[in-house]
Amino acid sequence: MFIGVTGYNHESSAALVDRNGVLIDFCREESLSRIKGDKSFPKRAINKILDSNNLEIKNVERVAFYERPLSAFLHIVKEASLHMPRSLDLLTHQFRNFNRSSVSCYLDFSKFFKGLETKLIYSDHHLSHTLNALAYSNSKKDICSVVVDGFGDRSTASISQIVDPTEINELWECPYPVSLGLFYSSITDYLGFAINEGEYKVMGLASFGNSNSKSAKLVRGLMDWDSTSNKMISDMSFFDYHLSTSNSFSSKLEDLLGPARNPFVQLNPQSSDFQRCADIARGAQDLTTYLIEKIFTHAHKISGSRRFLFSGGVSMNSASIDSLAQLPFIDEIIIPPSPGDAGCAIGAAYYCYIKSIPQSNLNISKPSLFPSIKEKRNYEFFTEKIISNEFNILERNADDAFFKAAELISAGEIIGTVLSSSETGPRALGNRSLICDGKNKDAVENLNTVIKDRSPFRPTAPAMRYEIAKKYYILRPEIIDCYKSMSATCKCLKDNVSLKFPTTHVDGTARIQIVENNSSLDKLFCKLEPLGIEILANSSLNVSGDPTCFDLVDGLMVCSRTKLRYLLTDLGLLKRKT
Ligand SMILES: [Fe+2]
Questions:
Q1: How far, in Å, CA of 496 to CA of 556, rounded?
Q2: Cα dist. 560→24, 108, 444, 553, 566 in Å?
Q3: Predicted local confidence at residue 79, as pLDDT
Q4: 438 CA → ligand 1 middle, Å
């Protein structure tokens, strides 16, 4: 057995791969600690995957950390030291927190999992991204990997040629501090949203903006592609993320775009500052799409490949993928369901596997979108107590529960789901979801505002079967797998009724989910389609700001904290008593 681990900088997680190359388990630390974006050493996640799979430390052959900690530390210090005294704050922070950074990974393993530290190896950050993406590709050979993120242990973007899993050659890199990911985070911060969390809001806001506005044009000028050197370039004087622990952008950006938005004031389409913010978001989105396309064009030029893996935090920019897929040299783009740093645990686990198994025996199986198949289902006493005190079980039999849930959805109700194993990625795909009739405007609005308290400019994703999706949306075969994990938006067909669906965004796009055969939502559609429901609105089951629910207790807590009344679970369909 092989374990991959991420932590300290972004979301912590752990993954388990067996000697047959199968991803057995994956868990985010935030799922268990209930701290959104938890980046501490993932001791709960490691414990969970060991416990759920009846493993002891002696059963683990190797464990890999997803980056080279000292390299990341030195790159940040080296860059900051060039800008003294402005960077004094960052340098002081780096050295004061040296023991709490990822360089203490070895010590944390020896402290919490005695014996595992002797089996610890380190994978290159972008190699971890690449191997995570490679696992989800049907073909494991002769494909090009593009990684674009905030910052790895050396670079902020890279292109690699995959000859086979044992021979991955890096062809190009963008060195820190020029970073498309950190640019987008800085604009997220400027617009008053939390970094690593509010990027989705910027993407949703961009649809209200005007590409020809002055603000959008100014933002587009902040970065560019130099076609002589084939590098991304940026005027770093507008940014502080490489100099400061507290500021991502400099006062010069405010001189250019006006004052940063107050994060404590809610932004909605009626706000006086809404259009300016939307135009700035539009500029950031346009620039991101432009630079991603430049990187892919260069990747094609230097690798000759027409098939690509795309990972790193920037690959979660689902609004860019549709136009990327239209580039003439693209045959296929694979984006893993968890393309950010949390998913690097999967890549790191496969790094152990590749280092440990003879090349002739390597066989990396395409993982399930819901990998934790061995999760224990022994609901404990207090869970049953909560259910008996607070809920009625309407139907216990799974088939009857799904049928009753379909009837309720048809009547305009909103249902929460806690079914089987949770999703690998950040997007709920039906097992930890809030769902309602995707064509029922009132139900979708209730889901967004009454239950979720979402920003009014963020659209809700529609989920459906492939045959239904073809009737309403322009689907691109190059990214067909991306629709299964909600990794790409698509346009509604021209003059199509879907333009009026409540799940369609203001720009006529939707971040659709095509449900996988035999998944929970696919089974639910067996009951829904005879009732005339062919599209579900699908959002993650959580209260705004919390991590997505992980287990049944989390789902019950959402019911107690919101107006959600129904929960479809492995125990049956539950209805809150009051
Ligand atoms: Fe990364």
A1: 39
A2: 33, 36, 20, 11, 11
A3: 84
A4: 34
CATH topology of 2-136+339-361 equal to that of 381-576? no
Nearest-10 Cα torsion for 65, 69, 70, 75: 140
Residue 56, C-beta contacts closer than 8 angstroms, at least 6 positions apart: 50
Distance 63 CA to ligand 1 centre (A): 19
Q: From its phi and psi, is residue 34 left (phi > 0), alpha (psi between -120 and 50) or beta?
A: left
Could you say which DSSP state residue 318 is in? Answer: H
Task: Using the structure block, give the residue that is written with the tokens 């989105």.
Answer: 285
DSSP state of 211: T
Looking at domain 180-334, which CATH architecture does it have?
2-Layer Sandwich (3.30)
Task: Give the integer Cα–Cα distance in Å for 190 and 201.
Answer: 12
Distance 170 CA to ligand 1 centre (A): 16
CA of 86 to the centre of ligand 1 (A): 26
- What's the 341 CA to ligand 1 centre distance in angstroms? 5
Q: What ranges in 234-341 are assigned the alpha helix state H? A: 251-257, 274-303, 318-324
**Ranges of each domain in the chain:** 2-136+339-361, 180-334, 381-576
β-bridge pairing 2-6 and 13-17: antiparallel
Q: How far is the CA of 568 from the centre of ligand 1 (A)?
A: 35
Per-position DSSP letters for 323-360, written without gaps between them: HHTTSTT-SEEE--SS-SGGGHHHHHHHHHHHHHS-GG
The tens digit of pLDDT for each residue in 354-375 reads: 999 988 888 999 999 988 755 5
CATH of domain 2-136+339-361: 3.30.420.40
- Topology (CATH level 3) of domain 381-576: DHBP synthase (3.90.870)
Residue 448 Cα to ligand 1 middle (Å): 30
For the full predicted model, state whether its pTM sits above 0.85: yes
Q: Is the peptide bond before 177 cis (omega within 30 degrees of 0)?
A: yes
For residue 417, which of 535, 578, 542 has the smallest C-alpha distance?
542
Q: In whole angstroms, what is the distance from residue 433 CA to residue 172 CA? A: 39
pLDDT tens, position by position, 29-82: 999 999 998 999 999 999 999 998 999 999 999 999 999 888 878 888 888 888
Residue 147 alpha carbon to ligand 1 centre in Å: 8
